[in-house]
Automatic annotation (TrEMBL):
Compartments in which it is found: Membrane
UniProt keyword annotation of Ribosomal protein present: no
Gene3D superfamilies, per the entry: 2.30.30.60
Name this polypeptide is given: Miniconductance mechanosensitive channel YbdG
Annotated SUPFAM superfamilies: Sm-like ribonucleoproteins (SSF50182)
Domain of life: Bacteria
Protein keywords: Membrane, Transmembrane, Transmembrane helix
Record-annotated Mechanosensitive ion channel MscS domain positions: 211-279
Length: 417
């Protein structure tokens, strides 16, 4: 606080003439009266040196004790979260809070001098110390969020329910709180004052940050309803997205397509557009095979003795269940369908608890279509494609054996003039 320049009393000592200290209501409020600039500067220098020295000693002592205690506790198996916090230097970042608090508490000592220029340094010093404390707490809180993310990633449910979006929301909230606190300190206003002004600007903020707010809400819904996970295969028509989700952030979803290109999707797109998620296929353990084989309708006929004899020699087992004479009442296409049904039911890779249908599709002359509909127990892309190709190769390879012919559209260049 500012006082008036004291005048030395007659007959006093030289020190009394140069310096006079008056006590205040508490330990850090008092006045130092002096008419010597040199004494004032010397006092300020000594005071600053004492404050810095005390701050440095307290910083190193506090840091050493805190890290020693944390290090011992972190060695215990049950304190895994403490090890994560130590790796992210949470406690290292908390240590500067002690010297900042000392400087903030000692700043009124400088304000007790009666030299206006020097005394006026106390208030800015206290404000800077308060701002630095806010900054220190912010850094420690952000480091703590990083340790939470690391520790959570070791849980089995982390891939199913990622918390990255929630941590990003918490980060934004921390930055907003820190900004309001710093502005309140610098302008010497209550935080409620700025919150009142912020509420008045809500409509404008909604317009400016529309995409961010939509992404914020969408991220919460995606996480709350378990609509998307890292590792899911999704298709988003209209956004050239057909691949695996590799990252779920607050505003964006990152998808790696199967051509290794990266697509960034706004989070709200997954709520406002149709999205195909293949996770259900993976979790069910069965992946569908749906393939149509088109035949020339002119080759569909009832089997003769030669065809039956050939089938008896080559594919007798699947047709053995037919009653005597039943084979003659079926067409070669019907026998082919019967064979495929029996063959795929015996296949070790086909899921027998899921539908297996070999059906004839509605068709028009000169084409007859037969559809293979079944599920394989392999959901991984490469093994699934290999299995499907082998099974279809077998189905196509047997077509001539049944006296059938696949339909082929005549090429215009092959027509006779």
């Amino acid at each position: 606080m500012l006082g008036e320049v004291g005048s030395p009393t007659m007959g006093g000592s030289m020190l009394d003439k140069a310096l006079r200290i008056e006590g205040g209501p508490d330990w850090h409020h008092f006045q130092v009266h002096t008419d010597s600039t040199f004494v004032a500067v010397l006092l300020v220098a000594a005071l600053l040196l004492a404050i810095l020295l005390a701050s440095a000693i307290c910083y190193y002592v506090t840091r050493s004790i805190m890290l020693m205690i944390v290090g011992r506790l972190a060695r215990q198996e049950r304190h895994k979260w403490l090890r994560a916090a130590k790796r992210h230097k949470v406690f290292h970042r908390l240590a500067p809070l002690v010297p900042a608090a000392i400087i903030y508490a000692a700043a009124p000592l400088i304000s007790g001098l009666t030299f206006p220029l020097i005394a006026s340094l106390g208030h800015p010093l206290a404000m800077l110390a308060a701002c630095y404390m806010v900054y220190t707490l912010l850094r420690a809180a952000l480091a703590f969020l990083g340790s939470v993310s690391e520790r959570y990633s070791h849980f089995p449910s982390s891939s199913a329910r990622p918390i990255k979006s929630f941590l990003q929301i918490a980060t934004i909230v921390l930055y907003v709180i820190a900004l309001i606190a710093v502005i309140s300190v610098l302008l010497e206003r209550s935080p409620a004052y700025f919150l009142t002004g912020l509420s008045a600007m809500t409509a404008l903020l909604i317009i400016i940050f529309r995409d961010s707010l939509l992404g914020f809400v969408a991220s919460i819904q995606l996480a709350a309803y378990d609509m998307l996970r890292v590792g899911d295969w999704i298709e988003v028509p209209g956004f050239v997205a057909d691949g695996t989700v590799i990252d779920i952030a607050l505003n964006t979803i990152k998808v790696r397509n199967f051509d290794n290109s990266i697509v960034m999707l706004p989070s709200y797109v997954l709520l406002t557009n149709s999205v195909k998620n293949w996770r259900g296929m993976t979790e069910s353990g069965g992946r569908r095979v749906k393939h149509a084989i088109h035949f020339d309708a002119d080759t569909v006929r009832f089997p003769d003795e030669a065809l039956l004899a050939r089938l008896h020699d080559d594919v007798n087992r699947p047709l053995a269940a037919l009653a005597p004479g039943d084979a003659r009442r079926r067409t070669n296409l019907g026998l082919y369908r019967l064979y495929l049904t029996a063959h795929f039911r015996d296949h070790p890779a086909v899921r027998h608890d899921m539908p297996l249908v070999i059906r004839q599709l509605q068709s028009s002359q000169p084409v007859v279509a037969l559809e293979i509909f079944l599920y394989l127990d392999e959901t991984r892309w490469e093994p699934y494609e290999n299995l499907q190709s082998d099974m279809l190769d077998h189905a196509y390879g047997l077509v001539p054996l049944f006296g059938l012919r696949c339909w082929q559209q005549e090429c215009p260049s092959s027509r006779q003039p």
